[in-house]
Give the backbone structure.
Amino acid sequence: MATMATTTLGPAGAVGPAGQPSPASPSGPAGLAGPARRNGLASHASPALLDGRLRRRGPARRGGLARRIARHWQWYALIAAPLLWLAVFRYIPMAGVQLAFRDYMGGSIFSGKFVGLYHFRNFFRSPQALPLILNTLGISAYNLAAGFPLPIVLALFLNVCTSNRLKKSVQMITYAPYFISTVVMVGILNQLVHPQFGLINKAISLAGFEPQNIMGIPDLFKSVYVWSGIWQYTGYNSIMYIAVLSGVDPSLHEAAVMDGASAFKRMLHIDIPAIIPTATIMLILNAGNIMNVGFEKVYLMQNSLNMATSDVIATHVYRRGLESAQFSYATAVGLFNSFVNMLLLIIVNQVARRGENSLW
Amino acid sequence: MANVNSEAARGAGASRGGRAGMKSAMRPAAGDRAFQAFVRAYLAAAMLIVLYPLVYVVSSSLSSSYAVISGRVALWPVDFSLDGYNAVFKHSLLMSGFWNAVFYAVFGTLVNLAMTIAAGFVLSRRELAGRGLLTFLFTFTMLFSGGMIPMYLTVRGAGLYNTRLAMMLPNAIGVWYLIICRTYFQNSIPRELAEAAELDGCSDISFFTRVALPLSAPIIAVLALFYAVGHWNAYFDALMYLKSQSLWPLQIILRNILIQSEISAEMLTDVRLMERSQGMKDLIKFSVIVVSSAPMLAIYPFVQKYFIRGIMVGALKG
């Protein structure tokens, strides 16, 4: 889940997997929700579509495109700035991926000698390539496996809980860590695992073991990353499931009670089937984003001791591209990452299409 | 799915109340009571697991540096002191970072809102020629992007490197929010209203400013909340695009203090004994965590309903 990644306000790829929708990646939060909404749309859209088709044959349409545009020119005036933004900050960078096939030496992003697949070969032949890919996939898969079920369990239990006071406090407190920034989150983490006074190490020494420098142990990196993400985002990620559950028709439960079903059985046979479509969509989104690790957090948690397991594709791109100015090489590695990610999303969606819950 | 959606959209409140009422009327079986006890224990445990580290951080920040590094803080402050906070408020870079973050959050969010709402409104108009194409151009960027390096070079090429605009323009629209916004306009403004306005001679722009905007207060609140939290917590754009300390937002300065342990001498002026300075550094970290998260956590209870509504708008509104 939380594999979500990306930088700030919702750039591509940030179709927010549940685990760590960084607040910074707005696509995160909304992303979760998106698919469900889209599905709904599709089913409601058909009458409107038909309507549109009928109209098109009518006289209003005969004016042609130019007249239709002229008639509503003010709409185009309103959307002009957003379209300009889209061209400059999304499509020019997209066209910029051709740097991956050139030797960029500064200047315009369309300049540089054409070198074909040179940078890609360079990456795949380097000894780092395999560990980088495996680390990226490993962190994401762990995150998905551990982080995906917990928000669902929390939502189911909140829905079943009959004490409103407990329910309110649990919601209030478990949502709160969403507001903690990634920097502060990693800062808290560093203090909690501090070799000298950190809580975790105190627990370890109480149990009779030697305190450890946890952030410096490569084998523990994935677990620290994943479980701190679960701590931060489980509450937030449960909100959507709670919303779906609160919409379950109460008469289903009434009928089940009449038939003598226990609370547990009702959860199993009414509540769980109700959230399966949403859960499936979430799973698709997360699986499709498995190449997008929560880069910002990984970068902050990296140190020279844990590099063997903490170096992922995105941090590699950052270090080689922006810290060592190997722009073309880093673009190539980044392009490989985005491309695999796009393929995964399309494949996973195709598979899901066999069922009923595809994204598009 | 569609069914679930429409059910859900019909309003959580009513169904929840109905169900609770029904339950209280029944006499719970022993099995149900055991299950309920288990559920409550699980929820209480989850709550404590989330709460405890937060309490620990706050308590540590209020303790003496010696109590912190000797590991004596477990739940409540030990040797209560405000030394950490005194040091934080002496840190001039932290203060300038704080005001920079406020600047980026306020003006960045205004840019976000203007762009997102205008585009969302236009894309929600069914008669818009080229609507499908325009929508596709926006949504495609969620599937594929140029990546970090071309983005960086574009921002630099546009002359935004090391300017305040670099914190506000490159991510002026979050495409997910745009889609939520478009859906909101689509569902909340009946077509008859637009047609009636048109017959009365209302132009498209005045329909937008005088009819659509006043009707969209809830979605504006939701978008403002998510965008503002995003700006407040963002550090990576600043890391890429800002070189001058005077432009740095709070998160970059926090990173230097919390992750890289760069604590300037000015914060440690009060420390007369050298051996105390290590403990002071750790105490300062706790205080910085509290001070920097306090604004967001303080407004959270007041915006909680918008926050939840925002996710539900995305999840349920079909």
In short: Chain B has a mean pLDDT of 81. Chain B touches chain A through 136 residues (CB under 8 Å). Residues 63 and 79 of chain B are 5 Å apart (CA to CA). The longest helix of chain B spans residues 276-316.
